[in-house]
Design a protein that fits this description.
five-stranded antiparallel sheet, 18 helices, alpha/beta, Beta-Lactamase, 534 residues, EAL_sf, rod-shaped
Length: 534
């Protein structure tokens, strides 16, 4: 069928509007849930990373404590700084590279013995405090270090750990982490802080001037606090930068966006294709009905017993404005679905009555066969107008055969249809079940309908002589029709072998290309007058 171009109906613009609206709404919902998921995943990631750092710090402190307490000289009571004690402290530092110095001091913060001779006292530190203190310098030349104070009887043992060692322990591989803070919740101060370099993303020590207070930490959208069990009042605070999180999750958002747009686009194209087909075909059918572009063609039915044509099946054709002829397969389903099949049928019936007026008048036993669907039976005015046409053109009910497909019966076999069929039969119209064998109607089911003809579908006729299962079925259908006392019409007969088989089985009404194809009225009349098959 040639595609016709029409102005786009409002349905297209409504489709575009709703597609954009639904796509936008769907994107908002998707991104809202993704945002919530992002929040949860970020908190979970920070929880895992901060706890991992906390465990690392605990393990480090425990290892240091175990190493220090294993010094033999310290396992007994310390009294004075002898050379033996100093040597033990020096050996402990030498054997553990993580320790930069050891010192024993009294509770007045005075160093009594140390691994370094020039070690300086860290001023301003609480000599009785336990935990992490600093930063300090063990000597004037040393790098910054932190002190872990441990009780030693009446004395205190200071373990000096270089700041850079602690910096490395605080580092995490989590891409979400932007800063890690060792925070003293007693003094409400950051003890140690590292941060990522903005360019390289490597960890580096934060200047003390950048150390965050808890008020500043709480201003961040993403942070997590974990306790350090081995150090009193010390917490791990891990901070994430929202900008970095957005960068890390950008690819996921992009993939989600593209997936939604792709699916939405496919749905839109499918709907557009459907509506384009529906509206263009629907409008074309409406236009064709308006301009009466549908016309009848006639396929004769031959009676082998009478050796003449006894009727025709009236078939519908559509001639476009470009003079193309369109077969029913291209439009009949849409016409039935939209109800346009009724005005099309009325046009065909009227034209057929008009064109066959003399034929029907001169041959009172000649009939016209019309195909009906459930839409005709459910239409409030179809049969009223149909009977008016019969009266107008003086066509008797006995000259009409109404054909209803088995599929239509099974799909729409309502009591109202059965009632109307019985009324038509009582008025003298003939009824045929069309395309029989393609559905699943049983004998008991068919007995409810007042048919007097059965048309065998072409599918079974084609199988004659092939040995196929459908050939056996065709014999069964013939037997079924006889049991129901139905006159049989064989459709789609195309060969002499098929004719002989049907004749042998007692089927004498034949329709098909073997005798004649469907033809317009100007070919039918000469054909009827001049051709007979012996």
């Amino acid at each position: 069928m040639t595609q016709h171009k029409f102005r786009r109906p409002g349905g297209f613009y409504i489709l575009i509007f709703f597609w954009l609206l639904l796509t936008s709404l769907f994107l908002i919902i998707i991104f809202y849930f993704n945002w919530n998921k992002e929040q949860l995943e970020t908190q979970q990631e920070l929880f895992k990373a901060s706890n991992s750092i906390s465990h690392a710090v605990d393990n480090f402190i425990n290892d240091i404590q175990n190493s220090v307490y294993s010094i033999p000289i310290l396992s007994s009571n310390f009294n004075e700084c002898t050379s033996e004690v100093r040597t033990s402290l020096q050996n402990a530092v030498f054997n553990n590279p993580l320790i930069s110095a050891l010192a024993i001091k009294n509770k007045e913060n005075k160093i009594l013995c140390a691994s370094l001779s020039d070690i300086t006292t860290a001023e301003g530190l609480n000599p009785t405090a336990q935990g992490l203190l600093g930063p300090v310098r063990a000597t004037k030349e040393d790098k910054p270090a932190y002190i872990i104070q441990q009780p030693l009887g009446n004395f205190i043992l200071d373990v000096y750990i270089l700041k850079q060692v602690l910096d490395q322990i605080l580092e995490t591989r989590s891409p979400y982490a932007e800063m890690v803070v060792l925070y003293n919740n007693q003094s409400n101060k950051a003890v140690l802080q590292i941060e990522r370099n903005k360019q390289s993303r490597h960890w580096q020590a934060s200047p003390e001037s950048h150390y965050l207070s808890m008020n500043e930490i709480s201003n961040y959208a993403y942070f997590y606090i974990a306790a350090v069990d081995s150090l009193k009042h010390i917490q791990i605070v891990l901070i994430a930068e929202p900008k970095i999180i957005r960068q890390l999750t950008l690819w996921h958002k992009l993939v989600t966006f593209l997936a939604v747009v792709l699916v939405s686009g496919l749905v839109y194209l499918s709907l557009r294709r459907f509506l384009n087909h529906f509206f263009s075909l629907h409008r074309a059918i409406v236009n064709a009905v308006k301009h009466e572009r549908f016309f009848p063609v006639f396929q004769p039915v031959y009676d082998l017993n009478k050796n003449r044509y006894i009727g025709v099946e009236v078939l519908t054709r559509w001639r476009t404005e470009h003079d193309e002829v369109i077969m029913p397969d291209a439009f009949v389903n849409d016409a039935e679905r939209t109800g346009l099949i009724v005005p099309i049928s009325l046009q065909i019936i009227e034209k057929a009555f008009k064109e066959c007026r003399h034929l029907l008048a001169n041959h009172r036993d000649f009939y016209l066969g019309f195909n009906l669907s459930a839409a005709h039976f459910s239409h409030h005015d179809f049969f009223h107008r149909f009977e008016e046409l019969c009266l107008t053109f003086q066509v008797k009910p006995s000259q009409i055969l109404l054909e209803i497909t088995e599929r239509e019966l099974i799909s729409h076999g309502e009591p109202a249809i059965t009632k109307k069929m019985k009324q038509l039969r009582s008025e003298g119209y003939s009824l045929a079940i069309d395309d029989f064998g393609t559905g699943h109607a049983s004998i008991s089911y068919l007995r409810h309908f007042p048919f007097n003809y059965l048309k065998i579908d072409k599918l079974f006729i084609t199988a004659i002589g092939t040995g196929a299962v459908t050939e056996v079925l065709s014999h069964s259908i013939i037997q079924l029709a006889r049991n129901l006392k139905l006159e049989i019409i064989a459709e789609g007969v195309e060969s002499e072998k098929q004719v002989e088989y049907l004749k042998e089985k007692g089927v004498h009404l034949i329709q098909g290309w073997y005798f004649a194809k469907a033809m317009p009225i100007y070919e039918l009349m000469p054909f009827m007058n001049g051709v007979k098959h012996e």
